[in-house]
Design goal:
Layout lengths: L1 E6 L3 H16 L3 E2 L8 E6 L4 H13 L4 E6 L3 H7 L5 E2 L17 E5 L1 E2 L10 H5 L3 E2 L2 H13 L4 E5 L7 E2 L2 E2 H9 L6 E5 L8 H9 L6 E3 L7 H7 L5 H14 L4 E8 L6 H14 L3 E6 L17 H15 L4 H4 L4 E7 L6 H12 L1 E5 L26 E2 L12 H17 L3 E6 L2 H8 L11 H8 L3 H11 L1 H5 L6 H13 L12 E8 L3 H18 L1 H10 L4 H6 L2 H10 L5 H23 L14 E4 L2 H13 L1
Parallel strand pairs: 1-2, 1-3, 3-4, 4-5, 6-9, 9-12, 13-14, 14-15, 16-19, 16-20, 17-18, 17-19, 20-21
Antiparallel strand pairs: 7-8, 10-11
The structure holds S-adenosyl-L-homocysteine, iron/sulfur cluster and FE3-S4 cluster (F3S).
Length: 636
């Protein structure tokens, strides 16, 4: 049967949906993105607030003529109410051992604990998800390694109280350390830690593990000690402030967000002022503020919900305005435009970016994980002053090669640079081959998850490539321009996706930006030739002397090896581990392999169509084609 999933609530539920999808597929069902087509409606419910459960009820009513499976977080009282209107109920936390079908090609949720033992007075979670259970460490490591192999770049550890994770001797900091040791470039994030369990060991671990993103959502809920006590949060206002100060002392660049509830039973204006004062003192980067909503069966449900809705709303507005002021980038009435130029190594990105920048008044932000380092010029293929042809470049030579520069460092600097370029009235052009950096900065682009439509496919199958190409051309001329017109499978798939229209699933953009992704396409043979020529040229230019010099300046052999490719193989030659000939040969092979990995990464993005709501990459052959697209894009 065809099914459609509705997911309400938090990341834990989103993660469950990814596993539920697998379970339904195993049962022989097929996902559709068209509700009308579905015979089976899966509702993954949230009970955290009455409004969330109201939306669940509305969905049950809307699809009462179909088979409905209800899953997720449900209170007993609601289960009873819904029981006779639905087909089945599934319980959360049953999905750990299923392989999830992730909805993003770049980020993956990995639940590490389920349930919660904290019994905060307002919260439904301990009742809907039961007692806290931690997953075995080995299982988590295996899942993460698998994801890394599949080129996932962002791993989210999820738990209701994620930092109380404990399995055998492994606590949460130890788990992070173990994951951080896995080679390859990726980031680790987690949601949500509880302040009472935020140990010094955890702070130290985040400080030291370069893969752990310096962002923490640390729910405070209230800034008043009496309210905190009634909420059963197990910390005081003073303890919370002290903790934040400690974290910031260890990592001055960390971003901290929070959850707050306003209008908890009995919360006076004065108590609310205490929350306000705490926020003024801490200056959160963001806050998720909710109006208290009684949940049957919880401790707080027995208290008198005496703050009128209007007053809850007023408090909510005050806090939201204080903490979540719209930044100039996010709230500008007109969307800003940004161009990304990407492609494999040696494909001619830098040159194309300069060409575009000169014609359209742009400035270039390099997105290359090795060109950020000072003194690494020839080996990293850094653009020279002359090649810049007067166009300003940023994010080159900003780091010391002895120290690790992370994607987060890149993101922070690039965000500031973009704002700077925009205030000058120029177009920011992000150019580089480190897909991971581009992802860290701009967020992922999700692959359109459009389920195959077999009836349509069978119909299209009968047509010739020429006919299909014509159909596609009518639907979306630009998509047609970028497709192999002799590849029937691709043509059919493109039409299928366009037919669905809404099939594109975009992650919420981090900025309010219109982004044009330009990719440089090269045939395999052509790229290999370019790589070869460029390598020989750089060897002549003094690449070996450059690596020698870096070592003299104190960059260790181990570090040079870790910097990869040119720095790895040349340093091995300098240490006498390789002959010159072997070095050149092995290096060239490694660069070719690297270019393939880059392309695998870029292929995760959909190919673009001007109609799609989610951006994809426009693959261009030359500068002229690129300029044509930019011109159109800037006019849109
Ligand atoms: N386990 C996580 C998330 C809990 S639910 C944590 O402890 O942080 C997410 C948020 O919803 C909570 O942080 C709280 O701010 C809010 N919330 C939970 N129950 C609520 C209720 N009954 N009324 C209003 N907001 C609530
Ligand atoms: Fe709910 Fe508190 Fe557990 Fe979070 S820690 S899930 S708010 S009981
Ligand atoms: Fe999440 Fe809502 Fe359940 S917040 S844990 S989906 S009650």
């Amino acid at each position: 049967m065809k099914y459609f999933i509705f997911t309400f609530g938090c990341e834990a539920n989103k993660a469950d949906s990814e596993r539920i999808r697998q379970k339904l597929n195993n049962l022989g069902h097929k996902e559709t993105l068209n509700k009308k087509d579905a015979g089976l409606i899966m509702i993954n419910a949230c009970s955290v607030r009455q409004s969330a459960i109201d939306r669940v009820r509305a969905k049950i009513m809307e699809f009462k003529n179909k088979k409905i499976i209800l899953a997720g977080c449900l209170l007993e009282s609601d289960k009873k109410k819904f029981q006779n209107k639905i087909w089945q109920i599934w319980h959360p936390n049953e999905y750990f051992d299923l392989i999830p079908l992730h909805s993003s090609p770049l980020s993956a949720f990995v639940p590490i604990t389920a349930g919660c033992d904290n019994f905060c007075a307002y919260c439904a979670v301990p009742y809907t998800r039961g007692r806290e259970k931690s997953r075995p460490t080995g299982e988590i490591i295996r899942e993460v390694k698998n994801l890394i192999k599949k080129e996932y770049k962002e791993i989210w550890f999820l738990g209701q109280n994620v930092n109380s994770y404990k399995s055998g001797k492994t606590n949460f900091p130890k788990l992070l350390q173990k994951i951080n040791k896995i080679p390859d470039e990726f980031q680790i994030r987690f949601l949500s830690p509880h302040p009472k369990d935020f140990s010094d060991e955890l702070i130290k671990t985040i400080t030291r593990c370069e893969k752990v993103v310096r962002y923490i959502n640390l729910p405070v809920q209230s800034g008043d000690n009496d309210v905190l006590k009634k909420m059963n949060r197990n910390y005081t206002r003073e303890q919370y402030i002290k903790l934040v100060k400690k974290i910031r002392r260890a990592m001055p660049d960390i971003k901290i967000s929070t959850d707050i509830i306003v209008g908890f039973p009995g919360e006076t204006k004065k108590q609310f002022q205490n929350t306000l004062k705490l926020c003024q003192e801490i200056k959160f980067d963001k806050a998720y503020v909710s109006k208290y909503s009684p949940r049957p069966g919880t401790m707080a449900a027995k208290m008198n919900d005496n703050v009128p809705f209007k007053e809850k709303k007023r408090r909510w507005q005050i806090l939201d305005k204080l903490i979540n002021p719209s930044t100039s980038l996010r709230a500008s009435p007109k969307k800003k435009k940004l161009i990304v130029v990407l492609g494999p190594t040696s494909s001619g990105k830098s040159d194309l970016a300069v060409g575009v920048a000169r014609k359209f008044n742009g400035e270039v932000i390099s997105a290359d994980s090795r060109q950020v380092y000072k003194g690494m010029d020839i080996g990293s293929g850094k653009i020279t002053k002359k090649e810049m042809r007067g166009v300003k470049h940023y994010l080159l030579d900003v780091a010391n090669p002895k120290k690790i520069f992370t994607a987060i460092d890149f993101k922070n600097m690039a965000e500031k640079t973009i704002a700077e370029i925009l205030t000058k009235g120029k177009i920011p052009i992000v150019c580089g081959g480190t897909g991971f950096y581009i992802h860290a900065l701009l967020g992922g682009v999700d692959i359109p998850r459009v389920a195959p439509d077999w009836v349509l496919r069978a119909k299209l199958e009968k047509k010739s490539c020429e006919e299909l190409f014509k159909i596609l051309g009518k639907m979306d001329p630009i998509r047609a321009k970028n497709i192999d017109s002799q590849n029937k499978r691709r043509l059919i798939r493109a039409i299928e996706i366009l037919r669905r229209g809404s099939g594109q699933i975009a992650q919420p953009p981090k900025f309010n930006f219109d982004i044009l992704y330009l990719g440089i396409k090269r045939g395999d043979k052509n790229l290999k030739e370019l790589i070869h020529k460029r390598l020989i040229k750089r060897l002549k230019q003094g690449m070996i002397a450059e690596v020698k010099k870096l070592h003299h300046q104190g960059v260790s052999w181990k570090r040079l090896d870790g910097l990869g490719l040119e720095y790895r193989f040349v340093s091995r030659y300098l240490r006498g581990l390789l002959t010159k000939e072997n070095m050149t040969e092995q290096l060239e092979t490694a660069i070719i392999q690297y270019s393939k990995r880059q392309m695998t990464w870029f292929k995760k993005y959909p190919s673009a169509t001007l109609r799609a709501s989610a951006p994809g990459i426009y693959w261009v052959k030359n500068e002229k084609e690129a300029k044509g697209l930019v011109k159109k894009f800037l006019k849109l």
